[in-house]
Amino acid sequence: MNVHERIAAARDAAEAGPPVVLPGALRDERLLAVAVSRPRVSFVLTSYNYGRYITDCLASVSGQDYDNWECLVVDDASTDDSVARVRAFLATVAAPERFRLIERPANGGQMEAFRDGLARATGSFVVMLDADDVLLPDFLTAHMRAHLTVATVAMTSTNQYQINGAGEVIAGQHMDHQSKGYFRHVRQTSFQKGFWVWATSSSMVFRRSTVERVMPRDGTTFRICADYYIAHFCHLLGDSLLVPTIHGCYRRHGQNNFGSNPVLGNINSVGDLDRHPPHDLFRQTIIRHVCENRDLFYPIFMGKGLVRFLLRLVKPAELPGLVARYPEIFPRATAHYLWLATRAALARSRTPVSEKFKILPVAATRGDRPGPARPDGRQAT
Q: Which of 61, 146, 213, 241 has the fewest CB within 10 Å, making it most exposed?
């Protein structure tokens, strides 16, 4: 238990009275008075042969009621009319400078398309948006309220409607999203076994600083399911927040790169799991990335913290090899780290689900509407 958890556990809520309700950065006019603005969000919209749907996706980005955003459209060498449709859309919007079209010379898959967009992004937050999905107008407002008022986390995920290729709603929520009607701070997880508690990548807003740290540097890539790697790694670094309300639509049209299964009812896999890259491939990639890029992670965790982080990923049989290969990270005998891993696993097993998926108090979620308009027509912080 760290110092923050000890303080939380020791306070007497009955004596303390109701918690202080923060105003929320989206509507705190004092920030405007000192020239502090709301953060920019970069949409990285990746597309491969989604010409049939991309105009609807672009229009949903253009219609956001949170105004500080940009959109980088990365076409991954499509062979359909996707690029022509993007150019036609940009010719009709009032502010085409918000959009930039990037045409990749060869198809590289989801991660490489996202990497190209991320390299050109200027926002402090980033959205990994699929070109066949649609966002509701308050998507960014909901996410930025969550990031700036509800909890400080690496990523947020809102719930989604599911729609078909014709644009009809076929499900009232995304079955994987485990908010269950509450804001939930997801924490204290390991990555030795696979899990997925969020909706799709189009439901997420990431801190760019976190995403940049997790991108592989050794040439490793994922043509599909790159969001599985990015979401898990970011979550392990800085936790995540499940937002219970719906602010987007995930399109199930039968030709998705992975999620091509129909909605059958209850919970069924969105796609053929035999096509999904193995969980251990993602896990090993994260371990290798952390160990090979110690300069990125040591200042965050320091020595003991870095070891504890890796023990959430490493299986006991893998420890001797890692201790031998990375003595600067593991300076002690293997037996010591086996003992630490066992103790940490036991502690996690004793942690109740209510702490791993912690419901946040309603009082912390107020202040959900943008502030008043500034003289130039843009909304205040």
A: 213
